[in-house]
Amino acid sequence: MLGQYLNALREQGPLIHCITNTVTMNDCANALLAVGGSPIMADDPDEVAEIAALAGGVVLNIGTLRRQNLNAFYGAGREAVRRGIPVVLDPVGAGASRLRTETARGLWKELPLAAIRCNLSELRALLGEGGGARGVDAAPEDLAASASLRERAAQIGALARRAQTMVAVTGEVDFVSDGVRTFAIRGGHPLMARVTGTGCMLTAVTGAFLAASPQQPLEAAAAAVCAMGLCGARAHRRLLEKTGREGTGSYRVLLMDELACLTGGELDGGEDIEIFERAD
Question: Quick one: which residues bind substrate (predicted)?
Fold first, then answer.
């Protein structure tokens, strides 16, 4: 079902303009190349509007936030919106500091976003429902999985309606919702959380999937999340086969390899998703 969106991405090779954090910039660029996109990481305020105008998608990531980034975020975002280019926001660490929370909220309120890619704590902080993020990680109470899958899907759907945009919320189970339909996606591996940048990579990859299939954004974003999770699980299996140990450095390389080698057919065969419709 979702493999067609990976195929479309590989056929089109869209240019993705990423203003992302300096910790994960290289991995984001390589992840985009691996799935078939073309990255450009321009962040000087004097050129971001021109670069955004050339792109198929724009990704804004506030991971290593500095005040001088703000003009770049808004310059690229406004130009993308003006041209109908999808913009994806990763509000890294929203809720951890006033600067992060205010920056994320400002971008969300001003820019008609195609998607927000985050964890549950970041999304709740963005929407003013508490600020319990632990740095860039979700708060312990937001990680709890005591509610049923349907109840959690309903929660994410309600948050998407409040955000008035599509959300991709990652955790033990990942959710992608436009407020009407919610995809619950199982996959990945806990080792992904021990490699910095896997969330940022997913945000960049989501931007590429949306750029290639703008008419079906929910399915395209779900395909991105499913692809990342599937590759995370496959990379772990290969790691144990090759080394018998859980080395995070080797895992990082194998994850990139899996992203590069994944086919549309393999994505179709590896899906583990449930789709929930809004009940009310």
Answer: 41, 197
